[in-house]
Design brief:
Layout: E1 4-15, H1 40-49, E2 54-63, E3 66-77, E4 84-85, E5 88-98, E6 105-110, E7 116-117, E8 120-121, H2 131-141, E9 144-148, E10 157-158, H3 167-180, H4 191-208, E11 216-222, H5 224-235, E12 239-245, H6 252-262, H7 272-276, H8 286-295, E13 313-318, E14 340-345, H9 357-370, E15 377-382, E16 385-390, E17 394-404, E18 419-423, E19 430-434, E20 442-453, E21 460-461
Helix pairs in contact: 1-4, 2-9, 3-8, 4-5
Protein name: PhoPQ-regulated protein
Pfam families: PhoPQ_related
InterPro entries: AB_hydrolase_fold, PhoPQ-act_pathogen-rel_PqaA
């Protein structure tokens, strides 16, 4: 019998000799009905779902143990105040049907791609999830996989701009235009049509996959498509589980502040498109508060959409992400309701985390399809002593640790590498370790536990219950002072 190992991350801890209390967040618009925009995204999705579905079957291609149906989907016409071209959103939707496909649930992959170049329609292949990966996931899980490419529509040209934009350039531009007039441009954030395109693809799937009675979906995506994954859970009740990769930015204002302070009052070079649009100057402004009511999944807590956040969530981050600092989860993980787990991939950057997509998704999907519960872990800290309790006996426990003597910077691109230390297998399903306090610089550490489980081979599944009790070094945030030195 083939064996599979389950790897569990228990704690991410960054320490230094210097401690300062976290600042309290400032909320300009909380609990104010006149500026509550939490309805905007779900309302727009529902409005578009009431329009006729426009799609075409292009071809059907047999692969090894999988049949792929290629569709073209016209998901929506999106151009608030006629400010964006092209307005027609077009996507390639590829449905991978394994020979023994299970009923009811399917995986939706939010994929990237470019479909317009200098205003001319083109066809390109997405790079986040290539065909080989998608077909393999379908085979290994006996689950139908639906890849939706060209999220977002791109390149896009915004009014009065001469340069077509893509990816973060488009997102940041849409945010800036929204914040100029939030009440008049509710639909301007690019996150809204990105989510709605996924909802339209699910409509297509339900219509075309009636022999399998597909009526609910697991959603996954990377980076801003991971963000789309989160918001799809909020907006569409057909989403029953999510696996977002490399989007460690819930509670966006607190997370951005933490990133800025961690880098000594500078933004990472990857944030340049947002700096260029002046987003950094507006983080504490009322318009940004209104923006986050739409784009920040955590802001849907204490709204009618809060139950949507309780669906199963498998959050996968990179230890050396180019955008985010490794302990951003301290701002949101403990607040998330329902079933949740977290994987931190050691020695990995933002742009290569797709290498771990298949090995992360397969065990999660198999557990979800089989309705199997996840192992339970408890991590407790007392006077720099971390104690971890396991509900199942681990077969391997590793402590990953990285040090930076000069800065609170653990990016892979900056040469930081985590080193593993194997810990003896506990006899009583409990371990205790001492958390270091370096005399100089910073240390990051987390615990990884491997457990036995009977699923697909060579796959690791990582959980991370969060426990934050230690204070962090906190540099003053002064949004009005714009010091962009492009820390890289």
């Amino acid at each position: 019998m083939k064996k599979i190992y389950l790897v569990v991350i228990v704690l991410f801890f960054i320490s230094t000799k210097v401690y300062t209390l976290l600042h309290n967040n400032i909320f300009f618009c909380r609990n104010s009905p006149e500026c509550d925009l939490s309805h905007v995204l779900p309302d727009y999705r529902e409005q578009i779902s009431g329009t006729p579905l426009k799609y075409t079957l292009i071809s059907t291609v047999p692969l090894a143990q999988v049949v792929v149906r290629h569709y073209e989907l016209l998901s929506q016409h999106w151009s608030p105040d006629d400010m964006v071209t092209p307005a027609q959103w077009r996507h390639n939707v590829d449905i991978y049907i394994p020979e023994t496909a299970k009923e009811h649930h399917a995986l939706v992959v939010v994929n990237n791609g470019i479909n317009y170049d200098k205003g001319v329609q083109i066809t390109g292949k997405p790079g986040d999830f290539p065909q080989e990966t998608l077909a393999s996931i379908a085979r290994d899980t006996n689950t139908i996989v639906i890849s939706v490419s060209d999220i977002p529509n791109q390149y896009l040209t915004f009014q009065d701009d001469k340069k077509p934009l893509k990816e973060d350039e488009s997102v940041s531009r849409s945010w800036a235009l929204f914040m100029e007039a939030p009440e008049q441009r509710e639909l301007m954030p690019l996150n809204i049509p990105m989510v709605t395109a996924i909802s339209q693809a699910m409509r297509l799937a339900k219509k075309e996959l009636t022999p399998w009675n597909i009526n609910s979906f697991i959603i996954t995506g990377i980076s801003k498509r991971g963000w789309t994954t989160w918001l799809s859970a909020i907006a569409d009740p057909d989403v029953e589980a999510i696996v977002p990769f490399a989007i460690d930015l819930l509670d966006i204002d607190a997370s951005l502040e933490h990133i800025y302070q961690s880098y000594g009052g500078n933004w990472p070079i990857t944030f340049y498109p947002y700096y260029q649009q002046g987003i950094d100057e507006k983080i504490k402004s009322p318009p940004f508060s209104q923006l986050r009511q739409i784009i920040d999944p955590l802001r849907y807590l204490n709204t009618i959409y809060q139950p949507r956040l309780a669906i199963p969530k498998y959050i996968i981050n990179a230890s050396g992400d180019d955008f985010f600092v490794p302990d951003n989860t301290r701002f949101y993980y403990s607040k998330l309701p329902g079933v949740k787990s977290l994987r931190i991939v050691p020695n990995m950057n933002h742009y290569s985390i797709n290498q771990f997509a298949e090995e992360s998704l397969v065990p999660f999907i198999n557990r979800f399809q089989s309705k199997k519960t996840l192992p339970q872990l408890i991590g407790l800290i007392h006077h720099h002593l971390l104690t971890v309790y396991f509900s199942e006996a681990p077969v391997k426990v590793v402590r990953w640790t990285a040090n930076n003597p000069n800065a609170r910077d653990f990016r892979y691109a900056c040469g930081i590498r985590y080193q593993p230390l194997t810990i003896d297998i506990p006899a009583n399903n409990k371990i205790s370790i001492t958390l270091n306090e370096p005399e100089t610089g910073w240390e990051a550490t987390y615990i990884e536990a491997t457990l036995m489980m009977a699923m697909s081979p060579r796959v690791r599944f990582i959980l991370r219950p969060m426990k934050n009790t230690h204070r962090q070094r906190h540099l003053p945030l002064t949004p009005h002072v714009r010091r962009y030195q492009g820390v890289d």
